[in-house]
Structure prediction request, 276 residues.
Amino acid sequence: MRLDCAGRVLDLSHPAVMGVINVTPDSFSDGGHYLRLADALRRAETLVAEGAALVDVGGESTRPGAVPVSVDEELRRVLPVVERLARELPVPVSIDTSKPEVMREAVYAGAGLINDVRALQAPGALEAAGASDVPVCLMHLRGEPATMQWEPRYADVVAEVHAFLAERVRACESVGMARDRILVDPGFGFGKTLDHNLSLLRHLERFTDLAAGVLVGLSRKSMIGALLDAPVEARLNGSLAAAVIAAWQGAKIIRAHDVRETVQALRVCAAVQAAT
Prediction:
């Protein structure tokens, strides 16, 4: 399976690692680290050297309790970074946004994938993504970042998230997107309790029938911290365990902060899966 990301090919015949660059002052793990263009570029080059198959750029924090930013502010943060990385990196650049204006401008600047935590539900987002001719990732989010962790409830979290993503895939197809350019993400930590997150990870293989592939973001998240009683900077081992579990169940893209370690863990996983 290969995705055409604005002329850069993303090979999904084995799990790929998506490196993360948050051009924000308040993201939960790396907020404030890459606000300068030169710092973002150096970090991106490091991620690629460590094995990242694509780099995800975000200009608005979606951590629990995050405050939204304006379109103009998000564009100011991400466009110079996307344009520079798309020109200088050998791998695709993804834009992490829910705003149709940012989608259009970022794709014009060279982004090869749209990664939307709101699954193209914002007014105009579905049409903007459909017209972009680049792959999209649809994520499940219950509520909004500011309130999503206020006692989220599900009767059957796996079934409900699966049904939501299936509906969003159909919405994409209704505006002419082929299923082979659509990815889905169950949204670990986005409006879910620890038990919800564990159920989704345990049954992740159920999502592989929805589209071209499953993308997961588990790196350093609060579910890892809760299981290990560890702060953000001490969640590497738990993040690697979760990444291997996800890959074993068919995830095609693993979004990670610690790229080198995740790539190595996934190589071991792939070797075991390929053994006879």
Q: What stands out?
A: The mean pLDDT is 92.
